[in-house]
What does this fold into?
Amino acid sequence: MIGSSREAGIVLILFSTIGLIIPAVVVLRHFIGIDPLSMLNIKWGKTLIDVVFSILAAGVCLLNFYLTLSVPWLYKRQHGGIEGFAHVSGLPLTGGFFIFCAGTLLPPSVPLGIYLLLLYAIDGNGIPFFFFSFIQTCNGYN
It folds into this structure.
């Protein structure tokens, strides 16, 4: 639980800023056609690096999705309840980082943009999940 409302506000502002930057980059690049990092003049061979970031993003997001939804369900099914279950955090925020990198390096394409936004939405320990758990904590749910 977060200590004070000031800390909660700072954390919420920080994560909402980061949480909006990642899908904004994907939307700008893949749906609108604007390269948000064009001012950096990245000249490395992007074909291999963007595919690697895309595969890493998919792997991390699917691992986080599995750990967030499947593992508690399996534990509850095997033990008859959720008592004693210790939540396992996969790789928090890592999926968002890989999605950001893949979104800026992959060539502009609507299907790739939809793919990256879908990965971002199912990332179980990513920033979208943070908002749901933050709201639950503030409302008193556990």
The chain is about 70% helix and 0% strand. The radius of gyration is 17 Å.
